């Protein structure tokens, strides 16, 4: 069986956030299982991707397969930048692979609304090969009506809709599944959570420069800084609090939007409470999260949100919006607080989280073990491999 993963970007293009981590983690865990199984030799997993790295290109040799943490990855040059990623060389290589071996192939495409995903899906459909599509949050009412909405509607009407009906959809949460089914009726839809890194691969001595006042409620936002993350709502809610709080904003985004948020913080008179630390390296991330009392994510839409699992893996409770895919999980496991996207609701939920110090301590003690059990790499990777076998 040849398993081909197609994605517009792959690590080390960490600028694209959580999906980079999830796709790579899946490929690494599946490759490990294949290598250690009795069926080694009957499986061949490879990744086709582009050199995309935001406005820049990755420093790699295009067209030559390389091993990235045990996974065979081939990067191809792109002719267009974000968010189209047009790469004729990638499409040509995909066609050559499918022509060479037409039986027992399966293609897993990650993401949508880019020319790697859409055109690759068209090529695979032409050869009548099964397609698993992980939209990665790209098939929701929010994303359809947000950025480049007119172009998306045109693409969906003329090409996308028929391609999506050919696919077996993979959703990362029940919420994402519900969102997808409002837009398209695929061949099938299966819910399997993301694989998530729990700990940094290297030790780090980086720490935050906090004072030692235990009365300070230390909050952290760690994600790509963009409109859908709801930071404006969070800032307004924080401006209404009468407690001693500090917010760390970790992540990068377009300079114009980050500058706009800093102006908003000034308008709300909360600038002195916010520490902007920029992009955080993986080796520093977990230590920094663990130094805070609460991770906050008041997003308008998140199909999953890896950072929620990352935070809980080091015992830091979470406060998230009900539009985050993991909100049901957080509620059922009692690992944090869930709020609606209303400023007063966010404010009140923050105050509840602040007042329930005993609950935060209980989460700190119990969450790491719960996360390691519920998001075990081998268990989840085997579910993906079983899905591939069933579809073939």
From TrEMBL:
InterPro entries: Glyco_trans_1, Glyco_trans_4-like_N. It holds the Pfam family Glyco_transf_4. The keyword Transferase applies. One of its GO terms (molecular function) is glycosyltransferase activity. Residues 43-197 form the Glycosyltransferase subfamily 4-like N-terminal domain. Keywords: Transferase. Residues 218-368 form the Glycosyl transferase family domain. NCBIfam families: XrtY_assoc_Gly1 (NF046085). This is Glycosyltransferase involved in cell wall bisynthesis. It comes from Pedobacter soli.
């Amino acid at each position: 069986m040849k398993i081909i993963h197609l994605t517009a970007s792959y690590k080390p293009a960490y600028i694209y956030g959580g999906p980079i981590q999830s796709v790579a983690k899946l490929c690494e865990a599946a490759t490990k299982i294949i290598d250690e199984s009795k069926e080694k030799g009957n499986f061949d997993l490879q990744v086709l991707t582009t050199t995309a790295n935001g406005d820049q290109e990755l420093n790699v040799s295009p067209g030559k397969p390389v091993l990235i943490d045990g996974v065979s990855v081939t990067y191809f040059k792109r002719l267009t930048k974000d968010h189209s990623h047009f790469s004729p060389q990638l499409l040509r290589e995909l066609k050559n692979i499918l022509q060479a071996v037409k039986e027992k192939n399966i293609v897993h495409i990650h993401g949508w609304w880019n020319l790697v995903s859409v055109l690759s899906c068209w090529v695979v459909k032409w050869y009548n090969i099964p397609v698993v599509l992980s939209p990665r949050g790209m098939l929701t009412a929010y994303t359809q009506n947000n950025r480049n909405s007119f172009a998306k509607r045109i693409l969906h009407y003329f090409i996308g809709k028929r391609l999506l009906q050919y696919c077996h959809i993979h959703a990362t949460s029940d919420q994402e599944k519900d969102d997808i089914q409002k837009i398209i009726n695929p061949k099938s839809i299966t819910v399997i959570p993301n694989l998530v890194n729990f700990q940094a691969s290297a030790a780090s001595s980086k720490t935050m420069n906090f004072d030692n006042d235990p009365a300070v409620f230390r909050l952290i936002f760690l994600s790509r800084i963009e409109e859908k993350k709801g930071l404006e709502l969070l800032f307004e809610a924080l401006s209404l609090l009468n407690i001693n709080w500090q917010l760390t904003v970790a992540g990068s985004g377009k300079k114009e939007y980050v500058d706009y948020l800093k102006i908003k913080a000034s308008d709300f008179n909360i600038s002195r409470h916010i520490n902007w630390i920029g992009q955080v390296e993986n080796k520093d991330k977990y230590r920094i999260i663990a130094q805070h009392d609460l991770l906050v994510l008041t997003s308008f839409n998140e199909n999953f949100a890896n950072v929620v699992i990352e935070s809980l893996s080091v015992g830091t409770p979470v406060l998230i919006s009900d539009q985050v895919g993991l909100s049901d999980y957080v509620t059922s496991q009692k690992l944090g607080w869930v709020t609606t996207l209303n400023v007063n609701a966010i404010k009140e939920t923050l105050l509840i989280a602040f007042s329930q110090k005993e609950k935060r301590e209980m989460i700190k003690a119990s969450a790491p073990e719960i996360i390691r059990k519920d998001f075990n790499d081998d268990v989840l990777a085997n579910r993906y491999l079983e899905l591939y076998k069933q579809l073939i």
